[in-house]
Design brief:
Pfam families: DUF4177. This is DUF4177 domain-containing protein. InterPro entries: YjzH-like. It comes from Anaerocolumna chitinilytica. It is a single chain. The protein has 62 residues and is an alpha+beta fold. Helix content is 19%, strand content 53%. Strands 1-3-2 form a three-stranded antiparallel β-sheet. The protein is elongated and about 50 Å long.
């Protein structure tokens, strides 16, 4: 039976090149993105906005 390890990474919505580089490096290390969840917050004007996203990743334990 396969065993997995998981990693949670929260990234703010002001994404930059470093975030993309980090995610690509995790892929090279064998991490697979399995979920992306938006964190929604209320704004002062009465609307809402996405403040950050949470990436859930997994890779097989050897």
């Amino acid at each position: 039976m396969k065993k997995w390890e998981y990693r949670i990474l929260e990234v703010s919505m002001d994404l930059n090149d470093n975030d993309e580089i980090e995610v690509n490096n995790l892929g090279k290390e064998g991490w697979e993105m399995i979920s992306v969840t938006s964190i929604i917050k209320d704004s002062v004007s009465g609307g809402s906005y996405t403040s950050s996203v949470i990436f859930t990743l997994k890779r097989e334990l050897e």
